[in-house]
Structure formats: structure tokens, C-alpha cells
Amino acid sequence: PPVTLLDVFQLHARRHPKKPLLRFQDEVHTYEDMDLRSNRTAWALRRRLGLSSGSVVAVFLPNSPAYVWTWLALAKLGCTMACLNSNARGRALRHALDAAGTTLVLSSPGERGTVGWEGAAGVEGEVATKVSVV
């Protein structure tokens, strides 16, 4: 079977848990940190939202560590992740969501006020299920 990025990440997490994986501003996240956070995120997404293998989830997050552990969590669940440009608005955002065929959008709390989630950004109710990832 093919080796995935998740497989490679998990191998490194087992072999070098304390080794830095990501530096963001003044934070350092180790493989172990990211593995634990992604496990907690995967658990919450499955338990609270019923996500499972085959689900398509749009991710509308800025570049941050949360983006990485969200990606890992979705990969661990077997979900397809539709990566949305966090600067997209209006028709461009609507098009990206339609093309992804998703019914769930994971967004950062900061997007609440800037997206105009229902209406102004052109995102209608059927895809307006939004979950804040912290």
C-alpha cells in the first residue's frame, strides 16, 4: 500500500516525539504535541459532529498550528479535507464550497465577524454549518 503523509508523521512521532515539528511565532510544537492535539481534535470531531471516513470537510483557517493539527485529525479520521483560502470571500468562497461538495466548514473564531457567514459572503444556510477550531 502507498505511504501517506500521515504515515510518515506517525512514524516520526513515534521515533522522535520531543523533536520540534513546527515553529510558529514564539511557539515550538513537537511531534508529540501535534500528535496529541490532533488526536483530541479527531476525537471531538467524531464525537460531537459524527465525522467519519469519507466525510468531506472544508477548512477555512489561517496559517497557524491549528491548521496542521486539524489536517492531521481529519486524516486520522479518513476525511477528505477541502482547503479553502482564508482570504476568499463572496462568490469565490461560494464557488470553492460548491466545488468541494462539503456540508461542513471548520473555521477559526476570527472569521465570525469578517466572513458575514450567511448572506454577505454568499454562503447560504446549507453549507453554513461552522465549527470553531481553537
Automatic annotation (TrEMBL):
UniProt entry tagged with the keyword Glycosyltransferase: no
Q: Cellular component terms, GO, for this chain's entry? A: endoplasmic reticulum membrane; plasma membrane
Signal peptide (UniProt feature, chain positions): none
Q: Residue limits of the AMP-dependent synthetase/ligase domain?
A: 9-107
**What's a single GO BP term from this record?**
bile acid metabolic process
Q: Work out whether the entry's keyword set contains Ligase.
A: yes
Q: Which Pfam families match?
A: AMP-binding
InterPro entries xrefs: AMP-dep_synth/lig_dom, ANL_N_sf
UniProt keyword terms in alphabetical order: Ligase
Give GO MF terms, alphabetically: long-chain fatty acid transmembrane transporter activity; long-chain fatty acid-CoA ligase activity
Q: Entry's SUPFAM superfamilies?
A: Acetyl-CoA synthetase-like
Catalytic activity from the UniProt record: tetracosanoate + ATP + CoA = tetracosanoyl-CoA + AMP + diphosphate; a very long-chain fatty acid + ATP + CoA = a very long-chain fatty acyl-CoA + AMP + diphosphate
* Top-level taxon in the UniProt lineage: Eukaryota
What family, per the record? Belongs to the ATP-dependent AMP-binding enzyme family.
**Entry protein name:** Long-chain-fatty-acid--CoA ligase
